[in-house]
C-alpha cells in the first residue's frame, strides 16, 4: 500500500483533508494510509488503511443530486441480501459490502465544502479486471451477475427510489443529443462518423422502452452498472464473490444489466482502448458469460425476457457510445476524462462494438436461442 511519500504530488496536498474525512468512519482507529482505488468515471474512490481497510467514496452529487436516496437504496439492498444469504446454503463464497457508520451514527459525512462521503467495507482477497482473462473468468462474470440478480429478484423494485431518473432510458439520451448538436461544433471525421451512426440507427433506440411500456418486460431491481470491473474475483479461487459500485441499484430492466455486462466483457481490447477501429464483439465469450449468467437467472427470468437479450446487447452498447459522444460535445461535464478527446475516443469504441454486434446478430441470436432451449 502506498504511504504518503509515495502518493503522486497532486494528491499530497489533499491527503490531510482526506485523512480527516476518513477519520469520521473509523471510530477510535487511526488513519494510516490512503490511496486512490479503481478507475470509476463518476465518484472519487480511495482505499483507507486504519488498522482495518475500508473504501472511502465521495458521491458525485452532480450525477446523484439526492445522495440520501442512494444511501437508502444501498442500505435496503444490503439488508435484503444479508437476509437472503443468511437463509441460503450457498456452497461458495459470496459477499455483500456493508456501510460504515460515522461517529454520530450516520451513513454518510458531509464536509465543509458540502461534499458527501461514505465508507464501505472492503472485500478482501479479491481483484478486478478490465478484460476477460480466460474461460473461467468469463463464466464467473456471468455467474456473478446472475447470482446478484437472483438476490435482488425478491426485493420489490417499488421499494427502491429512482436515484438517477432517465438512466438507461435510451430515447432520453437521444433527446439530449438532439438538443446539444445544434450548438456543438462537429468538425473532425471521427465526430462526423459518430453523427452518421446516430442518424443511421436513431429509429431503433426505443426498443426496450417500447417493450416496457407495452407491458412485455417487467421492472425489476437491478444493479445498473455491472461492467466487468465491478465484479470482484477471489484471488485464490478465481470465483466471482461480489458486485460493487451499488449507486445505481434501483428499478430497471434486467436487460440494461445484461447488455452492460456483455458489452464490457466481450470486448477484448477493453473500453479504454485507443485502437477503436480494431474493436470487435467476441461471440464465443458472449456464449460463456451468458451461460454463467443463466445458471442462476433461468429461475426468475420470464420467457419473453430472453427475446430482448440481443436487442439489449446492441442497445446498451450503442447507448454508452451516445452518452460518451454527447458528453464530448458538451465539453466533458459528466464522465471524468484524462485527456482531450477522451470521451470521443470512448464513444468511437462503443459505436464500433455496437457495429460488430449488429453484423453478428445471427450468431448472437443462435447462442441465445440455444441457451433458452437448454
Ligand atoms: C460510469 O463510474 P463508473 O465507471 O462505474 C457510468 C456507467 C457507464 C460507465 C462506463 C452513474 O460508471 O453508466 O457504463 O461509467 N455510471 C453512471 O465506464 O453514469
Ligand atoms: Mg458506477
Q: TL;DR of this structure?
A:
This protein is α+β, with helices and mostly antiparallel strands. It is 45% helix and 12% strand. The chain has helices at residues 9-23, 67-87, 135-152, 170-180, 189-201, 207-213, 254-265, 283-297, 303-306, 309-330, 342-359, 361-373, and strands at 33-36, 44-50, 52-59, 99-100, 109-110, 116-121, 126-127, 220-222, 231-234, 240-243, 250-252.
Description:
The chain has 374 residues and is α+β, with helices and mostly antiparallel strands. The chain folds into two domains: 4-122, Phosphorylase Kinase, domain 1 (2-Layer Sandwich), CATH 3.30.200; 135-373, Aminoglycoside phosphotransferase (APH), C-terminal lobe (Aminoglycoside 3'-phosphotransferase, Chain: A, domain 2). Helices cover 45% and strands 12% of the residues. It has helices at residues 9-23, 67-87, 135-152, 170-180, 189-201, 207-213, 254-265, 283-297, 303-306, 309-330, 342-359, 361-373, and strands spanning 33-36, 44-50, 52-59, 99-100, 109-110, 116-121, 126-127, 220-222, 231-234, 240-243, 250-252. The strands form three sheets. Strands 1, 2, 3, 4, 5 and 6 form a six-stranded antiparallel beta sheet that branches. The protein has a three-stranded antiparallel beta sheet with strand order 7-9-10. Helix 3 runs antiparallel to helix 7, helix 8 (283-297) packs parallel to helix 12 (361-373) and helix 10 packs antiparallel against helix 11. The longest helix has 22 residues, at 309-330. The radius of gyration is 21 Å and the shape is globular. Bound molecules: 2-acetamido-2-deoxy-1-O-phosphono-alpha-D-glucopyranose and magnesium ion.
Amino acid at each position: 500500500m502506498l504511504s504518503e511519500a509515495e502518493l503522486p504530488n497532486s494528491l499530497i496536498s489533499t491527503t490531510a483533508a482526506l485523512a480527516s474525512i476518513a477519520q469520521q468512519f473509523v471510530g477510535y482507529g487511526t488513519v494510516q494510509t490512503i490511496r486512490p482505488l479503481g478507475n470509476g468515471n463518476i465518484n472519487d474512490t480511495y482505499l483507507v488503511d486504519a488498522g482495518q481497510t475500508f473504501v472511502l467514496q465521495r458521491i458525485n452529487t452532480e450525477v446523484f443530486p439526492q445522495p440520501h436516496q442512494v444511501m437508502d437504496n444501498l442500505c435496503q439492498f444490503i439488508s435484503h441480501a444479508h437476509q437472503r444469504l443468511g437463509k441460503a446454503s450457498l456452497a461458495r463464497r459470496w459477499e455483500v459490502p456493508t456501510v460504515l457508520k460515522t461517529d454520530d451514527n450516520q451513513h454518510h459525512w458531509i464536509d465543509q465544502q458540502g461534499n458527501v462521503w461514505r465508507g464501505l467495507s472492503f472485500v478482501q482477497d479479491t481483484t478486478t479486471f478490465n478484460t476477460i482473462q480466460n474461460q473461467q473468468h468469463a463464466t464467473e462474470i456471468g455467474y456473478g451477475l446472475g447470482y446478484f440478480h437472483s438476490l435482488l429478484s425478491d426485493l420489490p423494485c417499488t421499494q427502491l427510489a429512482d436515484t438517477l431518473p432517465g438512466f438507461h432510458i435510451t430515447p432520453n439520451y437521444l433527446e439530449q443529443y438532439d438538443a446539444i448538436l445544434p450548438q456543438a461544433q462537429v468538425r473532425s471525421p471521427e465526430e462526423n462518423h459518430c453523427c452518421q451512426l446516430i442518424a443511421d440507427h436513431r429509429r431503433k433506440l426505443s426498443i426496450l422502452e417500447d417493450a416496457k411500456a407495452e407491458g412485455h418486460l417487467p421492472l425489476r431491481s437491478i444493479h445498473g452498472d455491472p461492467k466487468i470491473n465491478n465484479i470482484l474475483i477471489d484471488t485464490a479461487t478465481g470465483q466471482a464473490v461480489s458486485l460493487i459500485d451499488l449507486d445505481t441499484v434501483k428499478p430497471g430492466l434486467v436487460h440494461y444489466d445484461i447488455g452492460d455486462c456483455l458489452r464490457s466483457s466481450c470486448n477484448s481490447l477493453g473500453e479504454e482502448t485507443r485502437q477503436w477501429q480494431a474493436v470487435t464483439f467476441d461471440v464465443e465469450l458472449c456464449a460463456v458469460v451468458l451461460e454463467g449468467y443463466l445458471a442462476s437467472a433461468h429461475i426468475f427470468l420470464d420467457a419473453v425476457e430472453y427475446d430482448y437479450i440481443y436487442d439489449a446487447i446492441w442497445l446498451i452498447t450503442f447507448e454508452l457510445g451516445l452518452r460518451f459522444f454527447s458528453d464530448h460535445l458538451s465539453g466533458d461535464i459528466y464522465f471524468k476524462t484524462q485527456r482531450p478527446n477522451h470521451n470521443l475516443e470512448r464513444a468511437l469504441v462503443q459505436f464500433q462494438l455496437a457495429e460488430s454486434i449488429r453484423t453478428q446478430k445471427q450468431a448472437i441470436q443462435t447462442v441465445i436461442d440455444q441457451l433458452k432451449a437448454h
